[in-house]
Write a structure and sequence with these properties.
This protein has helices at 6-15, 26-41, 58-70, 106-109, 111-117, 120-128; strands at residues 17-20, 76-80, 99-104, 134-142, 152-155, 163-164, 169-175, 186-188, 199-203, 211-215, 226-228, 235-239, 244-246, 257-264, 269-270. The protein is an alpha+beta fold.
Length: 290
């Protein structure tokens, strides 16, 4: 399906991102949100979030969080905003308002998200951009909770999802509600996808911490960032090397998003040092399905 016009493909190549309206209908967005509400209602809170606070338990909590994250690539797991648990591990806000995100394999285990990820529109976008054999790396549902939705500092996705050569990863960021400057839409520095990367997150060989950063994140001029608001049902295509960020959500409105990453596998090497690795239970699934 030719969902993406040629001039949008050109803008993506030039700027490193592009906003497309109308990937999903309002009803389709609401269906994905309702399904996530059901998932959240049935969630088991991970044990490391329930550890009673003490100085001695700080590392246990941090390491528990790291283990939980690193083994989430083929599962559906829950990641919380800061400050939503008290010293006894009990919620300080309603549980449905506590989450930062749910990830990282909704595309594999949840039929409604799987259907959306493999939709003709998504496949059409990938084909328009010349992807020959793309696979799905990961998927997330991001809540950006009203009042407490945290800042995402300037970064490049290739810092965390590294390939050789670079430029083989693309994010699709699907707005399930309007994303505005008030509730934390994305901001980009156009053209930075042509400048390589300066920092990588890699798995450590042994011991704790389980990951480490190699290199330094550059300092970026705030004046160079351009907002990318998107209406409910729209999608932002994000080149793996383009610099982007989002501000805290200080508004009264949430900013729910379903996002996933694709990788072109043709003549591409996925780094074995990346935090995310395919597993026997879930090899990276092909986007193009019959």
């Amino acid at each position: 399906m030719d969902f993406m016009a040629d001039h949008y493909a050109q803008k993506y190549q030039e700027d490193g991102y592009v906003v497309l309206d109308g990937l999903l209908t309002a009803e389709e967005c609401d269906q994905l949100r309702c399904r996530m509400a059901e998932i959240v209602d049935g969630m088991d809170v991970p044990e490391h979030c329930r550890i009673t606070f003490s100085t001695d338990n700080d590392q246990l909590k941090d390491q528990g969080n790291a283990d939980y994250f690193l083994t989430s690539g083929d599962k559906i797991r829950f990641f919380f905003e800061k400050g939503v648990f008290d010293d006894n591990g009990e919620f300080t806000v309603p549980r449905e308002r506590s989450l930062n995100k749910v990830g990282h394999a909704l595309h594999a285990h949840e039929p409604s998200y799987k259907k959306m990820t493999h939709s003709p529109q998504v496949q059409g976008i990938a084909k328009k951009l010349g992807l020959q054999s793309p696979v799905i790396l990961q998927s997330m549902y991001i809540f950006k909770q009203p009042g407490i939705g945290g800042e995402v500092t300037p970064h490049q996705d290739a810092t965390f999802l590294h390939t050789t050569p670079l430029g083989r990863v693309m994010g699709l960021w699907v707005a399930l509600e309007d994303a505005t400057e008030d509730n934390g839409c994305l901001w980009f520095i156009p053209g930075t996808h042509n400048s390589g990367i300066s920092r990588r997150m890699v798995r450590t060989q042994e011991g704790y911490p389980l990951t480490n950063f190699v290199g330094q994140e550059q300092a970026y001029d705030d004046d160079k960032f351009v907002p990318a608001p998107v209406k409910k049902g729209g999608v932002v295509l994000i080149h793996g090397q383009v610099v982007h960020r989002s501000a805290p959500n200080t508004s009264d409105n949430s900013r729910h998003v379903y996002t996933f990453h694709l990788m072109e596998t043709e003549e591409t090497r996925w780094s074995p040092e990346n935090w995310l690795q395919p597993t026997e239970e879930l090899p990276f699934p092909a986007l193009y399905t019959t």
